[in-house]
Amino acid sequence: MADAPYLVALALVEKDGRRSLPITGKSQTAAAAAAADPGEDGRTLALELLLRLWQGSDDAPVRRASGDSSLLLVEIPMEVMSEQLPILKANWLAGGDSSRFEASLQSLIIRAWRISLAKYEPLRFIPWP
Description:
By secondary structure, the chain is of the alpha+beta class. It has five helices and eight strands, in the order ββββααββαααββ. It has one domain. 36% of the residues lie in helices and 28% in strands.
């Protein structure tokens, strides 16, 4: 399982005028990593993250900070997750620009999706970038 990628949902948002980058994730099985999209695990992570954002909006308004790329689901090697993702997050929170964050993230991931929802349609995973 050490070689299995980690599935991470992340949201680039602003809360009360300050950047926030909540993250949730889980390790994947080899079969899930080989699937065409993140499936039920991806839906579950997206729901968990969105519920955290919604609950946090009691304290202050939340808004997307990176347009359509504000809610992402990425497959990332575990060592990148634990070593490099925290650095990327800290740099973005400190005022780095979203384009630089996205470019740096793209260099680390195995594959990624934007999460989208249209009225009367199921949750969609759109390949990103």
